[in-house]
């Protein structure tokens, strides 16, 4: 099965539902705050509530795989159901797994998340290019063949990332700029939006522009860091500049803390989506 390219589907979802990705991050503390046990049953109740509240209205839902994997096979079973239910309700699903490896192992990771025959089939997956961008080729090729997408870590919101991402190569380019350049090549000629995205933190302020890094790759830019990490929608123009329209802000705790009340979850997501839309379209 080959889908319409992910970039085209994402552009439509962002334009009609609002440019927002909500993370499904079932921390133990969040389960407790919802009055749920920290076990597979609590995990399932949490995820079902989020999907039922948000999957028919937000553009993207982003399950963080680690919070499911910690429960072993029962947690993965909940992840399978969460992905399937979210996609059935109309949301695009971005699996936040940050996979990165080489050769047949990378191909296996790609098949896990990007092959329509997989139980964990998602619309896109986060990947790490820090074994060399070429190591991502199995994921890139499978995504192109299936109409799915990837988001490669480029300029992340965690302070530790700078020691790798801001390092410079022999040509004077930073590692991040090199990754972004490869993504630009992958997206060349794709309309209305490429399927090969980058992860760029919303907390970076003007440092990206000051470093002369071009974020416009022709693909989507996943922007974590709004809310609990300190950034706001108003910070987005300073970070993303001319690439602002392609930004997909990712919010987790600032929405999820309003649960388990479904109406409160919806209201929080709608509010943030409206704030982002106002900034992006102003």
TrEMBL record:
For this chain, the family text in UniProt reads:
Belongs to the OMP decarboxylase family. Type 2 subfamily.
User: Which keywords does this chain's UniProt record carry?
Assistant: Decarboxylase, Lyase, Pyrimidine biosynthesis
Record's catalysed reaction(s): orotidine 5'-phosphate + H(+) = UMP + CO2
Q: Which CDD domains match?
A: OMP_decarboxylase_like
GO molecular function terms noted in the UniProt entry = orotidine-5'-phosphate decarboxylase activity
Which residues are in the Orotidine 5'-phosphate decarboxylase domain?
Answer: 19-268
E.C. no: 4.1.1.23
Recorded hits in InterPro entries, A to Z, give: Aldolase_TIM (IPR013785), OMPdecase_AS (IPR018089), OMPdecase_type-2 (IPR011995), OMPdeCOase_dom (IPR001754), RibuloseP-bd_barrel (IPR011060)
Protein name, UniProt field: Orotidine 5'-phosphate decarboxylase
Organism lineage: Bacteria, Bacillati, Actinomycetota, Actinomycetes, Kitasatosporales
Active site as annotated: 98 (proton donor)
State the pathway, as annotated in the record: Pyrimidine metabolism; UMP biosynthesis via de novo pathway; UMP from orotate: step 2/2
**What is this enzyme's class at the first EC digit?**
lyase
Q: Does the keyword RNA-binding apply?
A: no
Taxonomic source organism: Streptantibioticus ferralitis
């Amino acid at each position: 099965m080959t889908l319409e390219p992910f970039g085209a589907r994402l552009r439509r979802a962002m334009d009609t539902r609002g440019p927002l990705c909500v993370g499904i991050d079932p921390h133990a503390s969040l389960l407790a705050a919802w009055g749920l046990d920290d076990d597979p049953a609590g995990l399932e109740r949490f995820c079902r509530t989020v999907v039922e509240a948000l999957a028919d209205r937000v553009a993207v839902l982003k399950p963080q795989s680690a919070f499911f994997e910690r429960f072993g096979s029962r947690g993965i079973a909940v992840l399978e159901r969460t992905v399937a239910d979210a996609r059935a309700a109309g949301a695009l699903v971005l699996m936040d797994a940050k996979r990165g490896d080489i050769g047949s192992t990378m191909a296996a990771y790609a098949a896990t998340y990007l092959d329509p025959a997989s139980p964990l089939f998602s619309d896109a997956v986060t990947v790490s290019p820090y074994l060399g961008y070429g190591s991502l080729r199995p994921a890139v090729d499978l995504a192109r063949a299936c109409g799915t997408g990837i988001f490669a870590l480029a300029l992340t919101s965690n302070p530790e990332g700078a020691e790798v991402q801001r390092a410079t190569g022999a040509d004077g380019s930073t590692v991040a700029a090199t990754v972004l350049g490869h993504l630009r090549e992958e997206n060349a000629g794709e309309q209305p939006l490429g399927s090969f995205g980058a992860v760029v933190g919303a907390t970076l302020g003007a440092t990206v522009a000051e470093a002369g890094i071009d974020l416009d790759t022709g693909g989507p830019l996943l922007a974590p860091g709004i809310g609990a990490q300190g950034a706001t929608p108003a910070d987005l123009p300073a970070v993303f500049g001319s690439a602002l329209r392609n930004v997909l802000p990712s919010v987790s705790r600032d929405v999820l803390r309003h649960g388990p009340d479904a109406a409160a979850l919806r209201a929080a997501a709608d509010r943030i989506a409206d704030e982002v839309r106002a900034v992006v379209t102003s």
